[in-house]
């Protein structure tokens, strides 16, 4: 067996193992009573942030904690908890960070308004820099300066004629 074939066999084995791990992680056998319950579940896990991935919702994440939280949401739904009760439970346990849209309050004020402040500050800085770079308006020449410039121009023209 050549080294190229051995390498290809190992690469295929790695790809198959990775694919089986992804498929196993994605399978969650949840049985919903009806389509409305499934839609409610999907809406809830779509609004909750994975605490491991941080930029993915519970619906999108393959992290073990996300799977546990999905099951927690499902179990709370099955026990009759409302959406607000489920969200309040998760916020009490993990803080507002678990929400994709945290409420505006003193602890999340910076999170909500810092981006706007940065944009406004950047715009003000840009305007300041542009105004500083703009050349100052030149003052008009006085009559004496105008006469001196005309004299210099006339002398240059007379020198050019004498050299021709």
Extract low-pLDDT stretches: 23-27
Radius of gyration: 35 Å
| CATH class descriptor of the domain at 31-102 | Mainly Alpha
CATH structural fold name of the domain at 31-102: Helicase, Ruva Protein, domain 3
Based on helices, strands and strand pairing, what is the structural class? mainly alpha
What distance lies between the first and last C-alpha atoms, to the nearest angstrom?
90 Å
Q: Summarize the amount of helix as a percent range.
A: 55-70%
Helix and strand string, N-terminal first?
A: HHHHHH
Q: Roughly what is the average pLDDT, rounded to an integer?
A: 83
Say which CATH homologous superfamily of the domain at 31-102 is assigned.
Cytochrome C biogenesis protein
Summed up, the helix count is 6
Indicate the overall shape. Answer: elongated
Strand content: under 5%
- Give me the CATH architecture of the domain at 31-102, please: Orthogonal Bundle
Beta strands, count: 0
Q: Main β-sheet: number of strands, strand sense, barrel status? A: none
Structure in words:
The protein has 164 residues and is mainly α. Among the domains are: 31-102, Helicase, Ruva Protein, domain 3; 104-133. The chain is built from six helices and no strands. The chain has helices at residues 3-26, 35-47, 64-78, 83-94, 109-133, 143-163. Helix 2 crosses helix 3 (64-78). The longest helix has 25 residues, at 109-133. The protein is elongated and about 105 Å long. The model is unreliable at 23-27 (pLDDT under 50).
């Amino acid at each position: 067996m050549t080294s190229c074939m051995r390498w290809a066999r190992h690469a295929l084995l790695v790809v198959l193992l990775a694919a089986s791990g992804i498929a196993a992680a994605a399978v969650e056998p949840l049985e919903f009573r009806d389509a409305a319950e499934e839609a409610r579940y999907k809406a809830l896990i779509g609004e909750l942030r994975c605490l491991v991935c941080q930029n993915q919702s519970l619906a999108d994440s393959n992290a073990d904690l996300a799977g546990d939280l999905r099951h927690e949401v499902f179990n709370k739904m099955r026990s009759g908890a409302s959406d607000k009760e489920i969200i309040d439970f998760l916020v009490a346990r993990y803080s507002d960070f678990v929400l994709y849209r945290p409420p505006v309050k003193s602890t999340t004020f910076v999170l909500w308004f810092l981006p706007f402040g940065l944009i406004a500050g950047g715009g003000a800085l840009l305007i300041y820099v542009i105004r500083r770079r703009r050349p100052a308006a030149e003052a008009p020449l006085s009559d004496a300066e105008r006469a001196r410039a005309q004299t210099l121009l006339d002398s240059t023209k007379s020198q050019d004629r004498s050299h021709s």
